[in-house]
Specification:
By secondary structure, this protein is of the alpha/beta class. The protein folds into 2 domains: about 10-20 and about 95-220, Rossmann fold (3-Layer(aba) Sandwich), CATH 3.40.50; about 20-90, Orthogonal Bundle (DNA polymerase, domain 1). About 40% of the residues lie in helices and about 10% in strands. The protein has helices at about 20-30, 40-55, 60-75, 80-90, 100-110, 120-125, 140-145, 155-160, 175-185, 215-220; strands at about 10, 115-120, 140, 170-175, 190-195, 210. Helix 6 links the parallel strand 2 (about 115-120) and strand 3. The two termini are about 15 Å apart. It comes from Chimaeribacter coloradensis. InterPro entries: 2-HAD, HAD-like_sf, HAD-SF_hydro_IA, HAD_sf, S-2-haloacid_dehalogenase. Keywords: Hydrolase, Metal-binding. GO terms for molecular function: hydrolase activity, acting on acid halide bonds, in C-halide compounds; metal ion binding.
Length: about 220
Amino acid sequence: MALFKPKYITFDCYGTLINFDMAGAAKATFADRVSEEGMPAFVRDFAAYRLDEVLGAWKPYDQVVSNALRRTCNKWQVEYSPRDGDAIYTACATWGPHLDVPAGLAKVAEAFPLVLLTNSMNDLITHHVPRLGAPIHMTITAEEVGAYKPQMKGFEYMLDKLGCGPDEILHVSSSLRYDLMTAHDLGITHKVFVSRGHEPSTPYYGYTEIRDIGGLPAVVGL
């Protein structure tokens, strides 16, 4: 069976490539209000509310963060201040790639154009792309699309902009819920799940699983 050679390798950015440490930022911000024992559940709720916030009409990502944080604090009966949301959103710009990313990404960039489809703002992503260590052919943000993943609109927009069918790309993500389930529903045949521990593997969705981006070159025969 011939090895699949995609026209483009497309990526989720935050979590997959950038170590998007929302959990760490929340722990640091709320260490004085949430117990050490309760913090893992508090952080999980914050993540769940962020997912819920992106399922509706598009709004700036700082509002996604602040709304999710406010709702989490309401559930936990913890005092919330707008300064908390501001602190976490400001921290986003400081985060860099996972250690495995630059070398693995640079290797596949020698043979394939790389595309980011990211739940980011146009100004926020400019902090992260230069840190990836490889040339990025195209970056598409949720702000440009007017919708966040896991909504289908971003994937449809990307395929239209690239002039590709869903069977001509390889999509790479560490999240099933934000990326790979939607990609599956849209008929994106070729997918890679980077098992960074965010979510359990669910082979039903038809992907190749790798531990980190260092394993990606082998997927495409490099």
